[in-house]
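Milestone M4 deliverable, item 7.
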Amino acid sequence: MRFRVILPGVLTVLCILSAGCIFTDTAEPSVSKIEIITGGTKETVVITGDLDINHICDNLRSLELVKMEYNEPTALDYTLRFYDEAGILIASLEISSHNWIAYDGYFHYAGDGEFDRKFIDELVDAALSSGPKV
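Output delivered:
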């Protein structure tokens, strides 16, 4: 009887701990592509350069995120979707206009570190200003 109670509890804890691995674990699957979807126009910018991907992932890993219990309504500026080498979605998060980061159903703020929004803004601006590739 105890086994039936303990095993699901342990599995639940392991699932919860692995859900945020893109922010805390250095052994997550290798990210080969990031889609950045703008909040207002829903335009999508695809990032495949190793330097850009590493900068974004390293910046997110460097943050100490604190789950917010309550937040005011806010506009979402970006959705970031992370894909592995096989093209499988491995993580997704949203960035609000207040630099709150939404994942696992909650908003988080950076208790330590700073989200590099300027880098994301510059990638999006450069891609959208150059227009579609023919």
